Backbone:
C-alpha cells in the first residue's frame, strides 16, 4: 500500500490505518481469550487493568441487556432504517409513475405535431384598466400599417387593443412607465420600391423585423409560463404570414396557404429520479433515530441518578464513557449496514454504482459525530422527556440546514467561507454535502473510493470523514469538561464550590469561640464525643467524622449572600466502630441524607473531613468506595434489568471474582427472600421488593461499611422483619449506618443512636440510655365517651388526683397526659379510682418510648412554634396549649359547597393555568422553538439575499434594451463545459474549440408527392466546403428552396453569444463568433426522419429538421413542421428555424436573390433600477411550517396521557367531575396556547417582511390556522385513548409529525409541483391531515414565489386553486377525530371510567336514559352536600380498639 498525507489525493492513511490497528487489537484479544479459555492460564496484568476489564465487561453486559430486553423497542430500532429506505423506494416509484404521465415519462419515437397558436389577446391585470394585444412602431409606413391591420383582422383584435409608437425609444419610454400593459411590440423595417399594383401593394424588396417582448419566465402556483414559446413564436408566425400574404398580393395571387407547426425530437424515456440526492433527510432520519435513543438513555441514567449509584460502587468515569461510546458506535454501524442492505434490496442506484466504502464510512462517521453531540447535549438537559424533545429538535434543525447545501456549497460560486463553517457545526450538514456529492457522481457511473479526496476542492469526502471525527472529539471534550465543572450532584457543582471558596475562603473551619458555643449548647454525651474526637482518641475508628460541615451558599445578582446561606450540616464530630449498627435519626431536613451523601462521595464537604477505614474522604474516595455499600433513600434501579442482573452488575463493579459472581447473586437474593423473583424485571416488583433489592445491592461484595438510608420504607411487616433479621446478622461483620423514621426499627436494631436537629448532633447513646435520660415519667391515656355529659368533668378529676399530670393533647375523647408521680402509691390509687368515674371508657399506662425521646429531643414543640410563627398564630406559642373539641367547626360553621358545572369549569381552568404558570420553562421553550425556526428562515433569507447581491446591491436600469440576434443553440458532441473556463478578470472565455461541421446538419422529409424544385441544386448533398468558395460559377450555386437556405452566408456566421441554456441546468459558453455551415440531409419520410433522430439521441448530431407537406412552394403555398431539440433548446430555436424556411419562401416569391425577410432578433422590455433579492423564505416556509404547525401535538398528547397515567383524571371523576367538562376545558386551553404561539410567530414573520404573510391576504392563512388548531387538538384527543404512558405518547407524537412531515416535504411537494398530477390523487392524499396541511401551505407558497400577487380571499372557492377543498378536508377530519375520541374514551379498556359496550349506541335505553341520567346528574350536582362531624357507634368502637392496640404496643 502506498501511504500519502494528501487528503485530496489519497485516503489510505485515513481509512486503512485504523483498520490495521483494529486488526492488531483483534489479534491480541484473540490470543488472550485463547490463553484464558483453552490453556486455562491467567493473563498477568496490573491491578488497575483488571479493574478496568472487569468493569468494562459489567457495563457491556448491562448495555446489551438494556438494548435487547425491550423486544418491541429493539424491533423498532432495527426496522426504522429499512422502513425509511422503503419509504424512499415508494417515493421514487410514486414520483416516477406520476412523472411518466408527462411528456418525458415515456419513450416517444413518433411525436405529434403541435399547431402554432395565433396571437392571443391580452387580459387586464388587477391594477390595470387597459392592455394592448398589438403594439408596433413606425406607424406612418404604409406597409407596416397594412401588416398590423391584417394581423388584427385575422386574430380578432379590436382597434382599442392596438397601440402604435413613433420609434423604439418612444416605445421603451411607454413600457417603462406602464409595465405589464402589453405582451410585445413589433419593430418592422420594410424596404420596397415605389411601384405598386392595382391594389396599392408596393413591391416589397426586403423586410426585417425585431420583436420586443417580456422575456421573463413566469411561475405562478407551480405552473411555468415561458414567453419565448407562448408569446414570441406566435408573434413571429402571424407577422411572417402577413408579410408572405402581402408579397403574394403584389404578384396578384389570391391563393394563400402557409401552415406551420412544431414537433420536438423523438426521445426515449427520460425520467430518472435521483431520490437519494432529492431527500438526504431520510438518511438523516434513519441515523438520527439512534441519536435520539442514545441521548435519552444517557439522560435517563443521569435523571434517575443511576450513574451516581454506579460511581458510588466504584465505577470509573472513563469506563462508563468508553463503554457507552463503543456501544453507541456498534449500534450506529449496525444501523448503517441495515440501511445499505435495504438500499441494495430495493435497487437504489445510489448503493449499486458507488463504492461501498464511500457511503459506509460516511454513515458510520456521521454516527461518530452525533455520539459526540449526544455527550454535549446530555449536559444541558436533566430529564429524559426533554432529551427526546431536544433530539427531535436537532433533527429538525439539521434537516432544515440541509436545504442550504446546494446554495452554499456550489462548485463554481460557493457561499462565504464563514457561512460554510457555520453550517458545518452540525454533522447533518456535512452528511447532506457528502450524500449530494456521491449522488451526483452516481449519474456519471458512480464514485470510486480512490477519488474520494480528489473529485472536488470544496469539502471532498475525505475532508468530511475527518470533519466528523474532529466534531466528535470537540463535542465530547466540551461536554465532558462542562460535566466536570458544572455537573450538578444534589444541586452542587465543582465550579460552584470553586466560586464559593474563592469568595469566602477555601477553609471554613470554625473558630474556637464557635466550637465552645456549640459545645455549651449540646448534650453532655455529644460534648464528650466531640472532645474525644478532637483529642485523637478515635483515630483508628472505622468511621471518623472530623468537623464535617456542609453549607449551601446563596447568591444574589451573582454575588455571595452569606445571610441567606443554608447550613445543612454543622460540624459533625463523631466516631463509629465496626461490628455495630449506628442509627442516625432526625426529622426531615435535619441533615441525615446530606451527611450520608457526603460520606458516600456524592457531595463534597464545605469543610472538615471524614476517615473511613483510615482513608480520607477528601483524597481517597475511590479507595473508600471499594469498601463501601450504599442503599440510597430512593430505589435507583433499571426497569429492564432483573434482580439477578442487578446483583451481577454491582458484584462485578465491586470486584467480585468471576467464579464467585453467581454465588454472590444467589446469596444476596436469598438474604432478602427474593430468589424466586430473581429473573423478573425490576419494573414488575412492588415497592417493598425494590427496597429489599436495594438492600441486597448494598451488601453485595461484602463491604466493610454500609450506608442504609431508610431501607425498609414501603415494606410489609413480614418483609421488614426479614430485613431486620438480615441486618442483625450482617452488622457483626461490618459497620452499618442506618437512617430511618421508624422508632421501632431503630430501637430493635441499633447499637448506638444519634439524633440530629438542624444539622447538629443533639444526643448520642444506646436506646436504653436515651430513654432513661430523656424520658419523663410515664404516659397516661384516658379514653372518655363524649356522648356522656359527665365526661366533661374527667379532666378536672385527673388534675385533682394527679397534680403533676400535664395534658399534652386531646382528640376525640382521648386525653394524653405526661405524669411524674410524687410517690409510688399515687399512680395505682389513681388507676383504681378513675375507672369508677362516669364517662371514662378505658385507661392505659405506658413507659417512655424512643418516639417520646425523639419528640423531646428533636423538638416537636419548637417545630409547632416555628410553624405557628410563620402563620401568625400567636396563641399556639404556649407549649401547654391543647386542642379540644371546642376547636372543631360546628355544623353551622361548616362551609357549604355547590358542585355546579360552572364551578367545575372554573376549577379545571384554574388548574390548567396554574400548571402552565408553574411550567414556565416548558412553555417558554414551546413558544421559543417556533420563533427560533422562524429566525432560521430569516438567516437563510439573509444568506440568499447576500448571494443575490454579490455583483451589487442593485441591478442598474435598462431604459433601452439591446437587440439580441437570433442564433442556434449549438451543442458539441464533446463536453463543451470542460473548455468553458473563467479568465483572470472573471469573464467567460472560449478555448481550444474545433467546430464540428456536423453541428450544422439539418434533416428534412417530404410527406406525400415530392416536388422536384424543393431541393434544387447543391441542396442537401452539396459539400459544405463549397459554400465558402467564392470562385464557384453561378451555374453551380445552390438553388431551390433549401438551396436558398444553405447559400445564405449570414446564416453561416450567426452562431455567437455568451451563454445559452442547455437542458435547463447546464450552460454552454462561447464568447466569440464562429462559422457554422448549414447542410440538409433528406429522409424517406416523416417516419424515417423520426427514426434517424431517435437513433442519434444523445449524440447531439443534428441541429434540427423539417417535414414538408406536398404543396408547391413556388406559388406561395407551403405547409411545414419545424423539428427542434426541445430537451436542449426548450423551444428557443424555433424562431430561427422557422425564419430559415419563411425567408427562403420569401426569396422564391420575390424572384430575386437579394430579396430577404430577415428576423433581426429580440429585445427585452426596459427595466428600472431594481434591488437584487431572492425570496428564499417563501420557498422554505412550507417545509418549516409543516413541522412548526404540528409541534404542539406531542405536548398535548403527553399532557392528556399523563393525567391518565397518574390516574388524575380518574380521581377527578370520582370527585364528581363531568367528562365533557374535562374535555372542553383542556380543548379551550390547548386552543388558546396554540393560537397565541402561532400568531406571535406569524407576527414576527410579517415584521421581517416575509411575503408569505404580507402578500397573501391574512384571512387565507388565519382560517387555515384556526381549522388546523381544532383538527390537531381533536387528533390529540383521539390518539390519547390508545396510550397509557406519557413518554411513549410523546415519542410517537414526534415520530408522527417528523415522519409524515418528511413524506410531505418530499413526496407531496413533488406531486403538487408536477403538471401531471391529477387532482384526484391530491384529494386522496388530503385524507391524511398532515398531507392536507402541507397542500394548503404549498398553495400559499406558490401564490407568492417569483413575486406572484398572492392568494386572495375571493380565490378560496376556486377549484383550480384547491384551497377550499383543503379546508373542507381538514374540517371533516376535525369532526371525525372528535367523534372517534369520544367513542373510544367510552369503550376502550385503557381509558378512564366504566366502559360501555362497543355497540352501546344501538340500544334504545342508552338514548332514552341519557337524558334522564343527565337531568339527575345536574340535579345531584346542584344539591349542596352537608358535611358531618358525627360518627356511628361502630366507627367509634373500631377507632377505640385500634387506639388500644397501638397503646399496648407502645407500652411493650
Residues:
Amino acid at each position: 500500500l502506498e501511504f500519502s498525507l494528501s487528503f485530496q489525493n489519497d485516503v489510505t492513511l485515513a481509512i486503512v490505518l485504523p483498520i490495521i490497528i483494529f486488526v492488531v487489537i483483534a489479534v491480541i484479544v484473540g490470543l488472550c481469550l485463547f490463553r484464558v479459555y483453552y490453556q486455562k492460564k491467567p493473563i498477568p496484568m496490573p491491578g488497575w487493568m483488571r479493574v478496568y476489564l472487569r468493569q468494562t465487561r459489567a457495563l457491556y453486559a448491562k448495555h446489551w441487556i438494556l438494548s435487547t430486553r425491550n423486544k418491541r423497542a429493539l424491533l423498532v430500532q432495527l426496522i426504522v432504517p429499512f422502513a425509511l429506505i422503503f419509504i424512499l423506494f415508494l417515493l421514487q416509484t410514486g414520483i416516477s409513475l406520476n412523472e411518466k404521465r408527462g411528456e418525458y415519462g415515456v419513450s416517444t419515437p413518433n411525436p405529434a405535431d403541435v399547431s402554432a397558436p395565433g396571437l392571443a389577446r391580452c387580459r387586464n391585470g388587477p391594477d390595470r384598466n387597459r392592455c394592448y394585444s398589438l403594439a408596433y412602431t413606425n406607424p406612418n409606413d404604409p406597409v407596416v400599417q397594412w401588416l398590423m391591420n391584417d394581423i388584427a383582422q385575422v386574430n380578432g383584435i379590436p382597434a382599442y387593443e392596438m397601440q402604435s409608437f413613433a420609434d423604439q425609444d418612444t416605445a421603451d419610454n411607454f413600457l417603462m412607465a406602464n409595465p405589464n400593459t402589453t405582451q410585445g411590440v413589433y419593430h418592422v423595417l420594410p424596404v420596397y420600391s415605389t411601384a405598386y399594383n392595382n391594389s396599392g401593394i408596393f413591391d416589397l424588396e426586403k423586410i426585417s423585423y425585431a420583436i420586443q417582448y417580456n422575456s421573463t419566465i413566469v411561475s405562478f402556483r407551480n405552473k411555468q409560463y415561458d414567453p419565448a414559446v407562448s408569446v414570441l413564436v406566435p408573434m413571429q408566425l402571424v407577422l411572417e404570414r402577413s408579410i408572405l400574404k402581402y408579397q403574394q398580393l403584389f404578384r396578384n395571387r389570391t391563393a394563400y396557404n402557409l401552415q406551420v407547426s412544431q414537433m420536438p425530437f423523438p426521445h426515449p424515456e427520460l425520467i430518472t429520479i435521483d431520490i437519494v440526492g432529492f431527500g438526504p433527510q431520510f438518511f438523516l432520519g434513519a441515523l438520527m433515530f439512534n441519536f435520539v435513543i442514545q441521548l435519552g438513555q444517557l439522560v435517563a441514567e443521569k435523571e434517575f441518578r443511576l450513574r451516581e449509584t454506579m460511581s458510588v460502587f466504584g465505577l470509573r468515569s472513563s469506563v462508563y464513557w468508553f463503554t457507552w461510546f463503543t456501544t453507541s458506535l456498534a449500534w450506529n454501524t449496525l444501523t448503517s449496514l441495515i440501511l445499505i442492505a435495504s438500499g441494495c434490496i430495493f435497487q437504489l442506484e445510489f448503493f449499486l454504482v458507488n463504492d461501498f466504502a464511500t457511503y459506509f464510512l460516511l454513515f458510520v462517521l456521521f454516527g461518530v459525530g452525533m455520539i459526540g453531540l449526544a455527550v454535549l447535549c446530555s449536559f444541558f438537559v436533566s430529564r429524559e422527556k426533554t432529551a427526546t424533545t431536544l433530539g427531535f429538535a436537532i433533527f429538525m434543525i439539521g434537516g432544515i440546514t440541509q436545504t442550504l447545501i446546494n446554495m452554499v456549497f456550489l462548485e463554481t460560486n460557493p457561499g462565504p467561507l464563514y457561512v460554510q463553517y457555520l453550517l458545518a457545526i452540525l454533522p447533518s450538514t456535512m452528511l447532506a454535502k457528502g450524500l449530494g456529492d456521491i449522488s451526483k457522481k452516481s449519474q456519471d457511473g458512480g464514485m470510486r473510493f480512490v477519488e474520494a479526496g480528489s473529485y472536488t476542492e470544496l469539502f471532498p469526502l475525505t475532508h468530511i470523514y475527518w470533519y466528523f471525527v474532529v466534531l466528535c472529539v470537540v463535542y465530547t471534550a466540551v461536554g465532558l469538561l462542562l460535566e466536570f465543572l458544572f455537573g450538578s450532584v444534589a444541586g452542587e457543582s465543582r465550579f460552584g464550590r470553586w466560586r464559593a471558596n474563592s469568595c469566602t475562603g477555601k477553609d471554613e473551619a470554625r473558630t474556637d469561640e464557635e466550637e465552645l458555643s456549640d459545645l455549651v449548647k449540646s448534650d453532655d454525651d455529644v460534648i464528650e464525643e466531640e472532645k474525644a474526637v478532637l483529642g485523637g482518641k478515635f483515630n483508628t475508628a472505622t468511621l471518623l467524622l472530623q468537623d464535617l460541615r456542609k453549607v449551601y451558599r446563596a447568591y444574589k445578582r451573582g454575588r455571595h449572600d452569606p445571610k441567606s446561606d443554608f447550613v445543612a450540616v454543622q460540624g459533625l464530630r463523631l466516631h463509629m466502630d465496626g461490628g455495630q449498627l449506628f442509627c442516625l435519626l432526625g426529622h426531615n431536613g435535619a441533615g441525615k441524607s446530606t451527611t450520608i451523601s457526603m460520606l458516600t462521595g456524592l457531595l463534597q464537604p464545605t469543610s472538615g473531613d471524614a476517615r473511613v477505614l483510615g482513608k480520607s474522604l477528601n483524597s481517597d474516595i475511590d479507595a473508600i468506595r471499594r469498601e463501601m455499600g450504599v442503599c440510597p433513600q430512593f430505589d435507583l434501579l433499571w426497569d429492564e434489568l432483573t434482580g439477578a442482573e442487578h446483583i451481577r452488575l454491582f458484584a462485578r463493579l465491586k470486584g467480585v471474582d468471576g467464579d464467585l459472581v453467581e454465588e454472590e447473586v444467589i446469596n444476596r437474593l436469598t438474604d432478602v427472600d427474593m430468589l424466586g423473583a430473581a429473573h423478573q424485571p425490576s419494573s414488575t416488583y412492588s415497592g417493598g421488593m425494590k427496597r429489599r433489592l436495594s438492600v441486597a445491592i448494598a451488601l453485595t461484595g461484602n463491604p466493610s461499611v454500609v450506608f442504609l438510608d431508610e431501607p425498609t420504607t414501603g415494606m410489609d411487616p413480614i418483609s421488614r422483619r426479614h430485613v431486620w433479621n438480615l441486618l442483625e446478622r450482617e452488622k457483626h461483620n461490618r459497620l452499618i449506618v442506618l437512617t430511618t423514621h421508624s422508632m421501632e426499627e431503630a430501637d430493635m436494631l441499633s447499637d448506638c443512636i444519634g439524633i440530629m436537629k438542624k444539622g447538629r448532633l443533639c444526643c448520642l447513646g444506646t436506646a436504653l440510655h436515651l430513654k432513661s435520660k430523656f424520658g419523663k415519667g410515664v404516659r397516661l391515656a384516658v379514653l372518655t365517651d363524649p356522648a356522656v355529659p359527665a365526661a366533661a368533668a374527667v379532666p378536672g378529676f385527673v388534675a385533682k388526683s394527679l397534680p403533676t399530670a400535664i395534658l399534652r393533647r386531646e382528640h376525640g375523647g382521648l386525653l394524653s397526659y405526661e405524669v411524674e408521680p410524687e410517690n409510688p402509691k399515687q399512680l395505682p390509687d389513681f388507676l383504681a379510682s378513675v375507672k369508677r368515674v362516669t364517662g371514662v371508657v378505658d385507661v392505659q399506662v405506658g413507659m417512655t418510648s424512643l418516639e417520646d425521646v425523639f419528640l423531646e429531643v428533636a423538638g416537636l414543640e419548637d417545630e409547632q412554634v416555628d410553624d405557628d410563627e410563620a402563620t401568625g398564630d400567636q396563641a399556639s406559642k404556649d407549649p401547654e396549649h391543647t386542642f379540644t373539641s371546642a376547636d372543631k367547626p360546628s355544623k353551622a360553621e361548616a362551609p357549604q359547597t355547590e358542585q355546579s358545572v360552572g364551578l367545575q369549569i372554573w376549577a379545571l381552568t384554574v388548574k390548567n393555568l396554574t400548571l402552565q404558570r408553574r411550567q414556565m420553562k416548558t412553555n417558554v421553550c414551546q413558544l421559543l422553538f417556533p420563533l427560533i425556526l422562524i429566525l432560521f428562515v430569516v438567516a437563510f433569507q439573509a444568506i440568499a439575499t447576500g448571494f443575490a447581491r454579490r455583483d451589487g446591491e442593485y441591478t442598474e436600469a435598462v431604459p433601452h434594451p439591446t437587440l439580441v440576434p437570433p442564433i442556434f443553440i449549438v451543442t458539441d458532441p464533446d463536453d463543451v463545459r470542460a473548455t468553458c473556463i473563467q479568465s483572470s478578470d472573471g469573464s467567460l472565455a472560449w478555448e481550444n474549440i474545433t467546430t464540428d461541421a456536423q453541428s450544422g446538419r439539418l434533416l428534412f422529409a417530404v410527406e406525400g408527392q415530392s416536388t422536384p424544385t424543393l431541393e434544387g441544386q447543391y441542396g442537401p448533398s452539396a459539400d459544405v466546403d463549397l459554400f465558402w468558395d467564392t470562385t464557384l460559377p453561378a451555374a453551380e450555386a445552390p438553388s431551390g428552396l433549401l438551396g436558398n437556405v444553405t447559400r445564405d452566408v449570414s446564416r453561416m456566421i450567426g452562431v455567437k453569444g455568451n451563454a445559452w441554456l442547455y437542458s435547463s441546468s447546464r450552460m454552454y459558453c462561447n464568447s466569440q463568433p464562429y462559422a457554422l455551415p448549414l447542410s440538409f440531409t433528406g429522409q424517406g419520410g416523416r417516419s424515417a426522419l423520426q427514426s434517424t433522430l431517435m437513433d442519434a439521441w444523445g449524440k447531439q448530431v443534428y441541429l434540427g429538421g423539417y417535414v414538408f407537406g406536398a404543396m408547391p412552394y413556388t406559388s406561395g403555398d407551403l405547409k411545414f413542421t419545424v423539428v427542434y431539440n426541445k430537451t436542449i433548446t426548450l423551444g428557443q430555436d424555433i424562431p430561427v428555424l422557422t425564419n430559415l424556411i419563411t425567408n427562403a419562401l420569401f426569396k422564391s416569391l420575390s424572384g430575386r436573390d437579394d430579396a430577404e425577410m430577415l428576423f433581426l432578433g429580440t429585445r427585452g422590455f426596459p427595466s428600472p433600477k431594481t434591488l437584487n433579492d431572492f425570496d428564499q423564505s417563501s420557498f422554505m416556509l412550507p417545509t418549516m411550517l409543516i413541522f412548526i404547525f404540528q409541534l404542539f401535538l406531542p405536548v398535548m398528547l403527553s399532557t392528556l396521557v399523563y393525567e391518565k397515567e397518574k390516574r388524575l383524571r380518574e380521581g377527578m371523576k370520582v370527585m364528581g367531575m363531568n367528562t365533557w367538562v374535562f374535555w372542553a376545558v383542556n380543548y379551550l386551553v390547548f386552543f388558546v396556547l396554540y393560537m397565541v404561539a402561532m400568531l406571535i410567530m406569524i407576527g414576527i414573520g410579517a415584521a421581517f417582511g416575509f411575503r408569505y404573510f404580507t402578500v397573501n391576504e391574512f384571512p387565507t392563512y388565519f382560517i387555515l390556522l384556526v381549522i388546523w388548531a381544532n383538527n390537531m387538538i381533536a387528533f390529540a384527543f383521539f390518539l390519547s385513548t390508545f396510550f397509557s404512558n406519557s413518554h411513549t405518547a410523546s415519542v410517537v407524537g414526534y415520530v408522527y409529525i417528523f415522519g409524515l412531515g418528511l413524506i410531505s416535504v418530499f413526496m407531496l411537494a413533488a406531486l403538487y409541483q408536477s403538471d401531471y398530477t391529477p387532482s384526484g390523487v391530491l384529494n386522496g392524499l388530503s385524507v391524511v391531515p398532515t398531507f392536507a396541511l402541507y397542500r394548503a401551505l404549498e398553495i400559499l407558497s406558490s401564490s407568492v414565489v417569483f413575486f406572484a400577487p398572492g392568494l386572495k380571499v375571493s380565490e378560496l372557492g376556486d377549484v383550480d386553486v384547491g384551497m377550499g377543498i383543503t379546508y373542507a378536508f381538514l374540517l371533516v377530519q376535525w369532526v371525525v377525530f372528535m367523534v372517534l375520541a369520544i367513542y373510544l374514551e367510552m369503550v376502550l379498556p385503557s381509558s378512564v371510567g366504566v366502559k360501555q359496550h362497543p355497540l352501546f349506541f344501538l340500544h334504545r335505553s342508552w338514548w332514552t336514559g341519557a337524558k334522564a341520567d343527565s337531568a339527575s346528574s345536574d340535579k345531584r350536582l346542584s344539591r349542596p352536600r352537608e358535611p358531618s362531624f358525627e360518627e356511628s357507634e361502630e366507627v367509634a368502637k373500631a377507632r377505640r380498639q385500634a387506639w388500644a392496640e397501638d397503646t399496648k404496643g407502645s407500652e411493650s
